[in-house]
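Onboarding guide, step 5: your first structure request.
Type a short instruction followed by the sequence, for example:

Predict the 3D structure of this protein.
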Amino acid sequence: LLQAVGLMEILAITQVFEKRVVGQYALHASSPDVPQEVHETLTKIMQDEQWHIRWIRDALRCMESEYGAEHISATLQRFTLADREVYRQTADEHRERLGGLRLANR
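The system replies with C-alpha cells like these:
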C-alpha cells in the first residue's frame, strides 16, 4: 500500500541512504589494493556525505516539535531495518549470481 509521505519521511529515508552510502565507500576504500587516487576520492566523497548526514540530522531535530522525537526515531529505525533487509536480499542475490557465473565458466 502506498501511503502519503511528508518531508520528515523523505529526510529520514535520505539519512538512512546517506549512511549506507558512506559505509559502502568506507568498505571500498579499506579494500586491499585500492589505488591511492581512488582512496583519496572516496575519502573526499565520504567527508561531503558526512556533511549531508549532519544537515539532515539537524533538520530532523528541528522537526521534533512538529512530529515528536519518538516518532522521528521510530521512523528512522523502521527505515534502517528496511534498508538492512533490502541490502541483505541484494547481497544474497549478488552472491547467487556470481556463483552461477563461476559455474557457467567452468
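Each response can be followed by summary notes, for example: The chain has a mean pLDDT of 91.
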